[in-house]
Structure formats: structure tokens, C-alpha cells
Design a protein that fits this description.
There is one protein chain. Helix 10 (293-305) packs parallel to helix 13 and helix 10 packs across helix 15. This protein is of the alpha/beta class and 446 residues long. Strand 10 (279-285), helix 10 and strand 11 (309-315) form a beta-alpha-beta unit. Strands 6-5-7-8-9 form a 5-stranded mixed sheet, with helices on both faces. A 4-stranded parallel sheet has the order 2-1-3-4. A 4-stranded parallel sheet has the order 11-10-12-13, sandwiched between helices. The chain has helices spanning 9-18, 36-47, 66-71, 120-133, 147-158, 170-173, 178-184, 229-237, 260-275, 293-305, 320-326, 339-345, 356-363, 371-375, 407-413, 438-441; strands at residues 23-27, 50-53, 76-80, 95-98, 140-145, 191-193, 220-224, 243-247, 252-256, 279-285, 309-315, 332-336, 353-354. The chain folds into 3 domains: 9-98, 3-Layer(aba) Sandwich (Rossmann fold); 104-256, Diphthamide synthesis DPH1/DPH2 domain 2 (Rossmann fold); 261-441, Rossmann fold (3-Layer(aba) Sandwich). The protein has 16 helices and 13 strands. Bound molecules: iron/sulfur cluster. Residues 420-433 have a biased composition (Polar residues). Its EC number is 2.5.1.108. Catalyzes the first step of diphthamide biosynthesis, a post-translational modification of histidine which occurs in elongation factor 2.
Length: 446
């Protein structure tokens, strides 16, 4: 079995048995399909239940395929590589999340010295990299990470060993006494924090959700992550604070930026093209719980108030081919799913594709608030409207200024549409009248 990830087979077996499950659905991200068969076989052996693997890729915690798994007869769903994001009461069946934290064997480029705990070199390297860039006496650092690295980072840098629920004390109590090292680490800095970002644990980010910090209080943000995707969310949410990325698997600390002017120009151009559209498509991603019916309803009302004809569509995955095949007459799209789809890949589509926030900015009659001021950056909008230069990263955030382009505030405005529908359906759905067909359009199509 792959040892790079903590697969929590015993805990998962316990969950399966606790729910007396006979049929178990397993959901993996693309990078873990290589171990899916082995995980399935092992869980069958350990639990006595029958397992089957869902073939669709899980891109994020939002993609939890509870309804699909239930429709296939599963008693429980095991979702790999993400932390639970969706409230339990919204799930169609019991779901167990296996975060797949990296194990000590995942960092062979930083071998331990004799008698040292396996993770000590990683913490030492990170510590040295931070000190080389940020003088402790004057630096105020905010640390962000993803679920896979979260516990290891906090153990390494804060010494918060009591917070370890996994019961594995080797890291804390090993012969290298990493705890003693970690307790010393960064303690001499002027300030260090793991920013709160509910409902995520402190210091954790998603590609669409990152805390916005006060630039008067923090000098730099350091993201301990793999790849740039999550770091970009931190950059977008904090235009006035320098953002750095530490790659544990590479052992490198780098300053990360995005070309805000280019992004703003692209997004404003997409919004300007969308504004010229007579018929606008509102497409929901039917991937797990990515789409919010309440956001759909709110954006639909804005589009109709702006005099646009609206077509509602739901697809298993939003791709240029899926949209063109389903509704070729649509002249512009608003995607209610992952906002990064429009921001990162929007220009791959032949028609303009906006996020809900951008749609409200482009078609709304009132200025957007209150998230916009917090996210205002130093990049001015080339179109002069200010909206393309602002990209709020608050898709799943609670307890911070936000707006009806995200799940929570939209649900408060449209309580009747706030829960996902339970009825079964297949194929895409369109509706011609205000308020009709939203629920049908969001039925799970996986
Ligand atoms: S909406 Fe996108 S960025 Fe956010 S958790 Fe889902 S896949 Fe990740």
C-alpha cells in the first residue's frame, strides 16, 4: 500500500462497521486513482463490506458525491484527499473523509540525521527558509496551508501536539524530539498566526476560499502547499500583502505573484462581452455540492431584472463542448460551480463565462458590497468599472464580509432555494420563467 499518504484504513473500517454498511462508495481525486483498487480491496478485506469506486474525479471537498453514491445503492461514501466542507445535514448518506495527510516518507529529499525524527529536517528547512527571508525581530507572518499539510505544519511550528487526534505520537515523542525543536521554532518572531478561516480549520485554504488579512498587521503570507493553485487564492484575497509559497516536496520558498492588470483586463473584457448578450445561460455544476441553488436564483433574478433572457442548465462537468452542445443559442454564460473555472480557464470557452460575483457586477443595478472593499487591490480596472480587478475568494467562507455570490449569504436571501433538491432526474434542464426550474436544473447528474 502507498505509504506517502495516511490512508486511515482502520478508522475507515470502523466507520463502515459503525454504519453497518454493506455497500461502500469510494471517491478519489485524479492523483489517487492509482491506489484505488488496492484501497478498495483492503477495505473489503478489513470491513467485510463490498466497495465500488466512483469514476468521476473529485476536484475538491465541494465535489462530495453523496447523492450519486446513494442513487447507486451505497450505504456510505468514503471521500479521499479533502476535508469535509458540506454540513452533514445536507448530505444524503453518511460520509467519511480521509484527508490523506502526507507521511514521513513523503519527503525523501530531506533525510533525517541519525536518531532524528523523520520530519525534523522538513521543519528545520522551512524554519531556515523563513529566517533567510524574514528577520524574526521585525516580521509578522501569517501561515496558510492545505488539509494535507495542516497538522504537520502546526505540529512542526507551533508545538500544538495535544491537538493531534490521530493518536500517532511518533512525530511528537520520537527520538529526535521534534517537539522540542518545534516549540522553539518561530517563537522569536514578532508575530506568527494561522489565520482563522471558518468553516475551515485555522490556517487552511481552498482554491476558492482564503482569508483576507489586514495589511497593517501582517508583513507576509507564507503558504505551505503543493503547487500554485491554492496560493493564488491567497494572493487574490490579499492584494496588498506579499505572498510566498513553500513547497514541502521541493524544499523551496518563492515569492508568488499574479499579473493583476492582465487578469483584470481579461475579466473585464469577458464581462463587457457578456453584457452585450441577449440570452444568458446560467449553468450549474452538478458535481457534488459545488453549485448553490440559492446563488442560481439570486443571479437569475438579476439577469432577468437586467432584461436578459435566461436559460438554466445543469451539466455533470462544465466544459466548452458540454455548453455548446446543450445550448448553442446562449451568448454568454454564468457558471455556478467552482469560481476558479471561469477565472483560470474562462478564455478556453468560445462564449464569455462569468462567475456569479462577476455576473452581479456586470448586470447588477447596485454596487457590490460588502466584500469588494476588503478585496480591493492596487490594480485599477482597465475598463473603469472596478469589478474585474476584484475577485473575492470567499466561496465557502463564513463569518466574514461576503455577498450573495456565495453559499451562505445567498441562502439567507433565498431560503426556499437553499437546500439541494432530493428528486431524481437525468439530463439537462432548462426553464423559461423566473424562478422555475432552478431546483430541477440542480439535480445531481453524475
Ligand atoms: S469550488 Fe473549486 S476551488 Fe473551491 S473547493 Fe471546490 S474545486 Fe476547490
Amino acid at each position: 500500500m502507498e505509504l506517502r499518504y495516511r490512508l486511515e484504513l482502520a478508522e475507515t473500517t470502523e466507520f463502515i462497521k459503525k454504519h453497518n454498511a454493506h455497500l461502500v462508495a469510494l471517491q478519489f481525486p485524479e492523483g489517487l486513482f492509482q491506489i484505488a483498487c488496492e484501497v478498495s480491496d483492503t477495505l473489503e478485506r478489513m470491513s467485510g463490506a463490498e466497495c465500488f469506486i466512483l469514476g468521476d474525479v473529485a476536484y475538491g471537498a465541494c465535489c462530495v458525491a453523496d447523492e450519486y453514491a446513494r442513487s447507486l445503492g451505497a450505504d456510505v461514501l468514503i471521500h479521499y484527499a479533502h476535508r469535509g466542507l458540506v454540513e452533514e445535514r445536507r448530505l444524503a448518506l453518511p460520509v467519511h473523509y480521509v484527508i490523506c495527510e502526507f507521511t514521513e516518507t513523503a519527503f525523501p529529499h530531506l533525510p533525517p540525521m541519525s536518531g532524528e525524527s523523520p520530519l525534523a529536517p522538513l521543519y528545520r528547512h522551512l524554519d531556515a527558509a523563513l529566517r533567510a527571508h524574514f528577520p524574526p525581530a521585525t516580521s509578522r507572518l501569517a501561515l496558510l496551508t492545505t488539509a494535507q499539510h495542516s497538522r504537520m505544519l502546526k505540529v512542526g511550528l507551533s508545538g500544538a501536539f495535544d491537538a493531534l487526534p490521530w493518536g500517532d505520537r511518533r512525530v511528537a515523542d520520537g527520538p529526535g524530539r521534534v517537539d522540542e525543536y518545534a516549540a522553539r521554532a518561530l517563537g522569536d518572531y514578532r508575530a506568527v498566526c494561522f489565520p482563522a478561516n471558518a468553516p475551515l480549520p485555522d490556517g487552511e485554504i481552498l482554491g476558492c476560499t482564503a482569508p483576507t488579512l489586514d495589511p497593517a498587521q501582517w508583513d507576509a503570507i507564507v503558504c505551505v502547499v503543493d503547487g500554485r493553485f491554492h496560493t493564488e487564492a491567497a494572493i487574490l484575497a490579499n492584494p496588498s500583502i506579499p505572498v510566498y509559497r513553500y513547497e514541502p516536496h521541493v524544499g523551496a520558498l518563492t515569492r508568488e505573484t499574479i499579473d493583476r492588470a492582465a487578469l483584470a483586463a481579461t475579466r473585464c473584457e469577458q464581462m463587457a462581452r457578456a453584457r452585450r448578450a441577449r440570452r444568458v445561460g446560467l449553468v450549474a455544476s452538478a458535481m457534488g455540492k459545488q453549485a448553490s441553488p440559492a446563488v442560481m436564483k439570486h443571479v437569475e433574478e438579476h439577469l432577468r431584472a437586467a432584461g436578459r433572457e435566461v436559460s438554466l442548465l445543469a451539466v455533470p462537468e462544465i466544459t466548452p463542448a458540454a455548453l455548446e452542445r446543450a445550448l448553442p443559442d446562449v451568448e454568454a454564460w454564468v457558471e455556478v460551480g467552482c469560481p476558479r473555472l471561469a477565472l483560470d480557464w474562462g478564455t478556453d470557452f468560445p462564449k464569455p463565462v462569468l462567475t456569479p460575483y462577476e455576473a452581479l457586477a456586470a448586470f447588477g443595478t447596485e454596487p457590490l458590497a460588502p466584500a469588494a472593499p476588503a478585496a480591493q487591490g492596487d490594480a485599477s480596472c482597465p475598463a473603469g468599472c472596478g469589478c474585474g480587478a476584484v475577485q473575492p475568494m470567499d466561496q465557502w467562507a463564513r463569518g466574514r464580509p461576503s455577498g450573495p455570490w456565495t453559499h451562505g449569504p445567498a441562502a439567507a436571501l433565498h431560503p426556499a432555494a437553499s437546500g439541494l433538491p432530493q428528486q431524481e432526474a437525468s439530463g439537462s434542464s432548462t426553464a423559461g420563467q423566473p424562478g422555475q426550474g432552478i431546483e430541477a436544473a440542480l439535480v445531481s447528474l453524475q
